[in-house]
């Protein structure tokens, strides 16, 4: 029987692939057979080396996604280096923390531009390529704050709520073109973006007590969900926000 989770011969763009969630997803896709275009402001050298060790092709694609300037080049460079594009994982993102009464326009724009504007336009650039070939998988990285309000992260909450809505809209528009658009909503994952929360003894304790699994997630915990949404196993899944959260939303 054919393995529906096999990604052999597929090519995936993963943004923010140098560390954390992006690296975990990139390596999970590579382990399933996908070739990897590792996109980031800093070179994802470690990710590429580890992916190649799994027996797939992997290339660094340097791009600063704080603006939409590089989005077309990211797609073109991936196709040129790896011969195609089948999967896009929009993981790159930033967070700024401050009380909403004191939040600055600069911090608002920086987060929205990276987490939402660039996500849409990279979806658009990849979607044009995928629509022309009649197939493709797009996986956006949402958040628990796609469902909840949170505190002290107004632009991040707005951006991740936007990612959830955008995922559903693109699924509605592109399903008939053979493109699946879905999202993963990670729970509390131990990464650079959550260092401040992990270091805050009180908040860290409150978070862990709320998670039924009793621990922070690891970037590798997202790998299976990414492989599922990137593979033919999810061909009839559209516009879904898959929470990988240790049970956070269930409590």
Question: What can you see in these coordinates?
Answer:
With 251 residues, this protein is of the alpha/beta class. It has one domain (11-245): NAD(P)-binding Rossmann-like Domain (Rossmann fold, 3-Layer(aba) Sandwich). The protein is 42% helix and 15% strand. A 7-stranded parallel β-sheet has the order 3-2-1-4-5-6-7, with helices on both faces. It is globular. The mean pLDDT is 97.
In whole angstroms, the N-to-C terminal distance is 39 Å
- Which CATH architecture would you pick? 3-Layer(aba) Sandwich
Strand content: 15-25%
CATH superfamily: NAD(P)-binding Rossmann-like Domain
Q: Please count the beta strands (DSSP E, at least 2 residues each).
A: 7
What is the element string, with H for helices and E for strands? EHEHEHEHEHEHHHE
Largest sheet, spatial ordering of strands: 3-2-1-4-5-6-7
Q: Mean pLDDT, rounded to whole units?
A: 97
Shape: globular
The top-level CATH class is Alpha Beta
Sheet of most strands: 7 strands, parallel
Q: What structural class do the secondary elements suggest?
A: alpha/beta
**CATH fold call:** Rossmann fold
Percent helix range: 40-55%
**What is the number of helices?**
8
Q: What oligomerization state is this entry in?
A: single chain
Offer a quick outline of the entry:
By secondary structure, the protein is α/β, with parallel strands linked by helices. 42% of the residues lie in helices and 15% in strands.
Give structural attributes.
8 helices, single chain, alpha/beta, Rossmann fold, globular, 251 residues, 7-stranded parallel beta sheet
